[in-house]
Amino acid sequence: MAATAALRPKGAREQGAPAFPPPTVTARPIDRAAWIAAFRHVRHETERRAEPLSAEDQQVQSMADASPTKWHRAHVTWFFEQFLLREHLPGYAIFDERLHYLFNSYYVAAGPRQPRIQRGLITRPTMAEVSAYRAHVDQAVVSLLSQVSERALEAVLPILEIGLFHEQQHQELLLTDILHAFAQNPLSPAYDPAWRFPDAAARPGQVSLDRGIAWIGHEGEGFSFDNESPRHETLIAAGRIDRALVTNRQWLAFMEDGGYAKPELWLSDGWYAGPGEGWEAPGYWRRDGDGWATMTLGGLRPVALDAPVTHISYYEADAYARWAGRFLPTEFEWEVAARDGQLPDAFGLVWQWTRSAYLAYPGYRPLPGALGEYNGKFMANQFVLRGSSVATPEGHARLPYRNFFYPHQRWQFTGLRLADAA
After folding, report:
1. Positive or negative CA dihedral for 372, 72, 388, 419?
2. Which residues pair with 287 in a beta bridge?
3. Which portions of the sequence form the region Disordered (predicted)?
C-alpha cells in the first residue's frame, strides 16, 4: 500500500515524483536514490541546453557580464569538485589541478582565478575535455552518495543541494549569455528555430494589499539561499499590484510617446546609461521597416505585441512607471501579492523588477567559509527581481527567491508589472 501524506516521513518524496527538486536535507532515512536522481537530472539538463551549440558557439564570450557555454559547463563542475569532493570523498583524485584557476568564479577564499573578462580566452581545455571533466566529477559524486555513511551524508547533502540549485542558475545564464552572443552576430543565428516566447495572458484587475505587518522570507524545510533568510516582519502599505505584466504593445506606446527622449522620466544615472548611450528600445530590438524586430532564442523575429516586454533594465522599468504615473512594487509587496497564486504570471515568463535595493534581511548571516561569498558580498548597488523566466529550469523558482542585477543590465529575461498606492 502506498504511504499516505500523513504517514510519509516529513520531507520524503512521493513515489513517481519528479527528479527535481530533491528531498529535503532533513528527511530521514536519507533517500540516496532520490538524491542521485536529482543530481543526474540537473547535470543532464545542462548538457541538454548546451547540445545545440557547436564548439565555436560554446567558446564565445560577448561581454564581461556574460560567460562562454563551455565555461558554465566547467564552472558548475568545479563547484562540486571544490566544495564537495575534495573534502568529503576520501581518496578523490582531482581531474586536473590547473582547472581550479580557470573555473573558479568569484570565490576569493578558494584562491586566485581567471579574470572574468578573459573567460573567452580559455580555448583549452577543449569542449571534449570539459565533457570528460564533467563525467569524472559525475562518477565521483554518485560514488560519494552511494558509499559514505548516512552520518557523513548529513554534512554532504546541504552542499550538494546548493550545488544543484547553483547549476540551475547557470543553466539560465547559459541561455541568456548565448542569446547575447548570437545577437551580436550579423547572421542572427537561432539557438532553437522552433522557440517562441509565450504571450502574456489577459489578466484584468489588480491584487489589493491591505496595510499591515507581513511575514517575509523563507519558511519551512525546503531549500532556500541564505539571502532569503531570516524570515522577518515588514510593514506593507495599502495598495494594488497589476495581475498582468507589461506587454510589448504597451511598451511601444511609451516609445512612441518619446519615453526614451524625455529626461524628466529618468533617474540621472539611468539617463546617461541608457538614452545617453543611444538606447531607444529594449535590448535586442532593432528597426524592421516600419516596425520592430527582436533577437530571440528562435532567431530574429517580429516583436510579438502581446508577449511581455523583456530585456529591459531597472532604469527603463522605472522610467516606464513614471511615464504611466505609477510605480514598481517593492519586493515585499510582490511577495505578499503573489501568495496563493494571486499573480498568475508571477513565474515562468519574465523576472520582474522591483523598486527594492538588494540588501540583507534583518539578522542575515551568510554561510560559513567560502560559500559565504555566494550572495552576501553582492548586497550593494543592485536591485531585486522576483518571479522567474522562460529560461528558468523547472523546479527552481520559489516565492521568496531573490534575484538581483545592476540597474543598467538587461541581457536577462527581465520585465515588469506596475503598482498603485491605495
Report:
1. positive
2. 292
3. 1-24
